[in-house]
Amino acid sequence: MPSVLILAGGISHERDVSLKSGRRVADALIDAGASVEIREPDSELIGHLMAARPDVVWSTLHGSVGEDGSLQDLLKLAHIPFVGSDSDGARLAWNKPAAKVILRRHGVQTPESITLPKSTFRELNAESVLALIATELSFPLIVKPAKSGSAQGVSKVENAQQFAKAMVDAFVYCDQVLIERFIAGTELAVSVVDLGFGPRALPAVEIEPISGQFGYQERYVPGETTYYVPARLRPSELERAAEVALLAHNALRLRHLSRVDMIVDAEGTPWFLEANVTPGMTETSLFPQSIVAEGESLAEAYLSIAQAALRS
Amino acid sequence: MTNTRTGSVTNFDAWKHAYAARAANLSVSEVRALFSVVSRPEVVSLAGGMPDVSALNEKLIEDAFKSLMANRRNYALQYGGGQGDLRLREQIQEIMALDGVQGSVEDLMITTGSQHALELLADLFLDQGDVVLVEAPSYVGAVGIFRHKEAHIEHVFTDDEGISPEALAEAADRMIQQGRKVKLLYLVPNFANPSGVTLTAERRVKVLEVCRERGILVIEDNPYGLLYFDKQPPKALRSIDDEGVVYLGSFSKILSPGLRVGYVLAPPAIREKLVLANESAILSPATFAQMLISEYLSITDWQGQIQTYRDLYKTKRDAALEALQQYLPRVKTTRPEGGFFLWLTLPEGVNSKEMLPLAVNELVAYTPGTAFYGDGRGANNIRVCYSHPTADNVKVGIKRLSNVVNLQLDLLDTFGGKE
Hints:
The structure holds 2 protein chains of 2 kinds.
Chain A: E1 3-7, H1 15-31, E2 35-39, H2 45-52, E3 56-59, H3 64-67, H4 70-77, H5 87-94, H6 96-105, E4 113-117, H7 118-124, H8 126-137, E5 141-145, E6 155-157, H9 160-171, E7 176-181, E8 186-193, E9 200-201, E10 205-209, H10 216-220, E11 225-229, H11 235-251, E12 257-264, E13 270-276, H12 286-293, H13 298-311
Helix pairs in contact in A: 1-13, 7-8
Chain B: E1 8-10, H1 30-34, E2 44-45, H2 58-71, H3 73-76, H4 86-97, E3 108-111, H5 113-125, E4 131-135, H6 140-148, E5 152-156, E6 158-159, E7 162-163, H7 165-177, E8 182-187, H8 201-214, E9 217-221, E10 245-250, E11 262-265, H9 268-282, H10 287-299, H11 302-327, E12 332-333, E13 341-345, H12 356-362, E14 364-365, E15 367-368, E16 381-385, H13 391-415
Parallel strand pairs in B: 2-14, 4-5, 4-8, 8-9, 9-10
Antiparallel strand pairs in B: 3-11, 6-7, 10-11, 12-13, 13-16, 15-16
């Protein structure tokens, strides 16, 4: 059985989610018989890693340190196998606008959008810039930090009065904000597992938040969202959604596990929103739901992923 | 794609249909999640109202512990009475006397922190929709309890001299005219949490008159009264009126919150119900913690320790005010003469809750003002707690806070304020 060091916590807006994810992954791996240690990324981490030399590192760190490729680069440098995408894949997925461009080039629909830094609004008169965006993309719009997760700083904007506030709310999380056209339809998360024999799409999870928007509360408070696994879509639509998830996983060069978020519109077209290299693993998260829906236990599945990382 | 074995529908809460309606008032928030970073050593926390227990002379606790184990071990490890240990209640009489409060040991009850006393009182007095009058702003823990009891929380105008008796009378009469039952006035009269403000002696008398005339019970919560810097605050409201005031005290700030021991002094009829409620809820307060405190009060210089705390917190208060003058000179602040807290008023339009993510980036934590209101006010306020970090870190924290405020002001300038 491998020894697995789980990294969880960190200093980020998603620290709490990361800690919960880390503990859940640890529970499952311990059930599977693995030797598990959970650690915070801190000033002593590198020394500890070099001394302890775990068989595999599994990071559930959310936010920049865990998802922007830097941690992956360091682990590679230290010749320590790790679960999840390498730095190139992590960087592409972490940068939502870049991921959208790549998927569009692969023929996948993704909502029309614009990504702008704070400086643009300061220099060009924010009111004029927002008016132009509203005219060209038209309401409703989704405003979100270009690099962040857990729905923090995400707003649905229905009219011009809400626009400025949504921008401020997003800019407190990130210096770049992605503004994209809202696509009405079924909200889906398709998880992908790749154990070294080619990526495999797991059953799609359909998300139906009671409030109508899948925000922070709806993600992490039990009872606030109804999940359907598999999604209540036609087989052909589910198949197409799975194809898009696999395409995203491959095009962004992701590894071992990922989760692709999308909207399927009334015509059955899947619209790519974003890909996640460190999907949430909490008790209400989407990735573990897909694993269970496929008939696997979390213990078996997570152990397989850790062993795949060991072979990589 | 692999076929699923079976379809499933879940909301991860199989008992959502079964909760009592008031459970809807209990939910996690994004803000709570952001507070999770406070546990990291890199973050300067000006958030939690924690005493600096590192300043507690550990020999005093060790001596108390050794004495307890040598002399009262079997008693300390056993169940106790629902009203609490008699010897500790006698010792609490001495502590209350420092605030001018005289009360019988018969009317004193030990609780699991004074928060527990507040919970029992709210349970005893509040039906859905009953009115609780509170300061503006008020203690977040009290607001939470009153909200959970589905009470109507009415904030009363409060300035640098504490709650306004005139505004109190006006609010009470307005509520009564609306057909509501005004049951309680909840106050932290000394170095209030969160404002740091102290109710003047003159206003204490007037506040009691207003409440007496209208049959409103006063809950006087006094965890900070002994932690004055130079001048003792006015005598407790309970020292003026022993029928209309329930007095709450705590060892959390003058000794240690880890022991979770508080107390309540109430008129006999209320005390009797409180003891029954206490027994029903927890059987008895933790005997071991009570005994340890009793030994501590018996054999150590506990008043000397309180003086140590006073000197320490004064130094930290001074550091906070100095840093505010240096880094945030245009931000209005209260100037507490004791206790743990400063209350900041930021420029209009700044929302202290919404700028918390910036604070995470800047490695500083604070409590947004909205937490201290039951009605959504306080958006441009911040509670700064200077008691726990070192004086140097208090300055570092406020410097970082100034970066946060300036970044937010820059955003607001760019986007022309908010909706």
